Amino acid sequence: MQNVMEETISGAIVRSYFKKLEANLAVDVAIVGAGPSGLVAARDLALAGLKVAMFESKLAPGGGTWGGGMLMNEVVVQNDAAEILHEFGITTVPVDDTYQTVDSVEMASGLIFGARKAGATIFNAVKVEDIVIHDGVVCGVVINWNPVARLEMHVDPIVVTTRALIDGTGHPSEIINKAVNKAGVKIDSPTGGILGEKPMWMEDGERTTVENTKRLYPGLYASGMAANNVQGGFRMGPIFGGMFKSGRKIAQIILKDLGK
Ligand code: 48H
Known about the structure:
Layout: H1 5-23, E1 26-32, H2 36-47, E2 52-56, E3 74-78, H3 79-87, E4 93-94, E5 99-103, H4 104-118, E6 121-124, E7 126-134, E8 137-145, H5 146-150, E9 158-167, H6 174-182, E10 198-200, H7 202-211, E11 214-217, E12 220-222, H8 224-230, E13 234-235, H9 241-257
Parallel strand pairs: 1-2, 1-9, 2-6, 9-12, 10-13
Antiparallel strand pairs: 3-5, 4-5, 7-8, 8-9, 11-12
Helix pairs in contact: 2-4, 2-9, 3-9, 7-8, 7-9
The site of ligand 48H has 29 residues, from α2, β2, β7 and α8.
């Protein structure tokens, strides 16, 4: 028997995947976590012509966007942030003069599709387990299959090198944690370390999420909840404007830093 369908399908997947992986072993920007802030940043950076790879430990990218508020699949955005969603083709519905609601499933799927269509490559089920630092500059991510990590298999990872690394891991700030607690670097925060997230205060949390979005160390950036957690900001619940604006802000900072 020659060229049976089973061989064609398996061969196509293997060749296509490894071509994609090989093309992304050295990138301009690596984004850890495909949540809302990372997805907005990914789209902006890819549209600007940079090679962008996102690593998402879960099977489904989208981060905390799918579940709305308490599993009611609607979220709220401010008018100016709704404009960012409209760029992705996502529909919003006015509540009053200030806020709009969004179907969270449309929002999650639209953000993922938009980032991908702009040219960012998303590697799902891949966990970033460490970072690379050479001579005081963060320059890579250490990756492994998330199921390997979950099953605690002793399997060595591989490395993707990058000119800029965004921690978009949300509440735990996993990548900044590695930088501070494993590499022992001092980041650009009041203490040089991670201050930790404060309780709920929607208005303040939305504002500081954007304010706290910045470069924290050479080569290392944070967006969204990760940025806010690092600087001790308040959480804000199911309102997402700050996340989108944070993603856009970090993309602009990186484009400037990379001379684009
Ligand atoms: C690969 C990883 C790793 C890893 C984590 O939490 P996210 O949705 O991220 P943000 O900051 O863009 O958005 C935050 C928002 O969803 C939120 O939580 C809000 C508004 N909360 C308010 C409140 O009061 O609670 O997504 C982060 C993503 C997730 O998909 C993780 O699976 C992924 O990062 N991730 N991926 N390697 N080491 N760690």
